[in-house]
Amino acid sequence: MCGIVGYCGTQDAQSVLLDGLKRLEYRGYDSSGLAVNTSAGLKTVRAVGKVSELLRALKTRRLAGSTGIAHTRWATHGMPTEANAHPHRDCTESVAVVHNGIIENHASLRARLEQSGHAFASETDTEVIAHLIEDALKDGAQLSHAVGAVLPMLEGTYGIVVASSLEPDTLVAARLGSPLILGIARDGYILASDASAILQHTRDIVYLDDREIVAITRAEYHIRTFENVTVQKPVETIDGEAADLQKHGYAHFMLKEMMEQPDVVLNSTRGRLDAENGTAVLGGLRDVEKQLRDIKRIVIVACGSAYYAGCVGEYMLEEYAGIPVEVELASEFRYRKPILDSGTAVVAISQSGETADTLFAVREAKEKGALTLGIVNVVGSSIARETHAGVYNHAGPEIGVASTKAFLSQVVVLSLFTLVLGRQRALSLVMGQRIVKELLALPHQIQVLLDCREPYRAAAELLADAHHALFLGRKYCHPIAHEGALKLKEISYIHAEGYAAGEMKHGPIALVEDGFPVVVIAPRDSVFEKSMSNLHEIRARGGSVILVTTEGAPYDASLVDRVITIPKTLEMLTPLLAVIPLQFLAYEAACARAFDPDMPRNLAKSVTVE
């Protein structure tokens, strides 16, 4: 993986492809490249590092033509080298392929191809596709038929786009488990793995589904299934503007997205809160309303920050809706033979809606007869289309690799989901109305936290030079401790661990010594006094304490080194406020250590492989 762009039209392909690659940079990558059909044949240029390195290479090797493909690579097979960067070519250099996904049987395919005389130039799994297509073209087959003949040989997941000098005005793409979108512009067609690469040119798109192939020329496109059945698909219009993908004066996308969080809460709740009846109205769940009333159990599946959002949702749903909830890492869910039935609702949370492990978990749940629901940010994404029903976050595009506003919106949506199920069951009208009231107050409270950044900088000073850190929280703030630790290690590269505060004496306390930083998230809630006991234990061993607590909370100032206060709210909504300082701690620590928080090393924004 990571980002794919293809163009076939009347414009300069190199310019269109480079623009698309720049808009895909946020996904994370280690190398990039492009191939264009020129008057001298199919030419390829690749480079290690940022797209700026590719631009530098193209200054002396401009590729003039109107059809081409491009890719940003996040290494899965083979080191980040120019040889391993995409596009990959065949022995005759007449075929070029870009690919997201993993070809699981690439080793056996490679061995067979090498035995028949093919020479490989890279260590990647992708290159086998180019050589297989080379063989399929030897009998004079059209490019689309050659690609179709190769696909049954591939085991694994892929989104591929293929160009060939034998058909210089044609591109062929196929999808199985990795997203691809076809954009219909006035000057041609654009293929991409992400809508952000298309928005500059068109908002009219066609979503490719699994086991579909599309062949495009300058004038037309044709879609068929792997079984060679022609498919007529609707052209859809996507929301969003290219301007949404700009920093608008902020130093980093992450900072911009953190500052947008008051609006995110407004957008996630707009038109959905019913103050009079103390509930929420979620139109995306209307078609499964009866099934929701009958469910006996909820399983939340997610990865990364979305998993921790799900953990907050577990507390909410069990306390206020009275439904048993389990939260599962999607990467483990499908392998442990989960017991599911029609009385189970499986809720999949994913910002992109394309997270491979979460998507496979949805498919597993559907096969077992469970009701599947999606909480996603990207309209029309695979999870949004494959679940029975769902709710959009409406957080807007999130470019920073480390999730901030999307995480917040996921927790907001889970609180709305709790209102819906709670009011159907045990949640009283009075309590429902109070939750709605406090949700409406959140945008202002978050803005207060955003307007006072100096405490975050001061606290980050204790972290910036540290090699390790510990984050502790109880009850609703236990998942937030994990999320805070994840943010710190993602973008500042400081090893950090999140723990339930009650578990500190069962192991983590062994790490605490003079100057060891411990972030304690302890709002004034039902477990506040127990959290205060942790401060004594840390201080007794010389640790440095950063305390995140509620305004006016009675803590012992002699036990803490830095204090960050948050406004008062309901216990169930405290995570939505407590997470803001933790985002800033990570951001300020990364900046102090001269790291780019938007592009952390080795990470990709959307993980579309297992």
UniProtKB/TrEMBL annotation:
Coiled coil: none
InterPro entries per UniProt: GATase_2_dom, GFAT, GFAT_N, GlmS/AgaS_SIS, GlmS/FrlB_SIS, Ntn_hydrolases_N, SIS_dom, SIS_dom_sf
Residues in SIS domain copies: 288-427, 459-600
Documented EC number(s): 2.6.1.16
BP-aspect Gene Ontology terms: amino sugar biosynthetic process; carbohydrate metabolic process; fructose 6-phosphate metabolic process; protein N-linked glycosylation; UDP-N-acetylglucosamine metabolic process
UniProt catalytic activity: D-fructose 6-phosphate + L-glutamine = D-glucosamine 6-phosphate + L-glutamate
Known partners and oligomeric status: Homodimer.
Protein name: Glutamine--fructose-6-phosphate aminotransferase [isomerizing]
Natural source organism: Candidatus Uhrbacteria bacterium RIFCSPHIGHO2_02_FULL_53_13
Gene: glmS
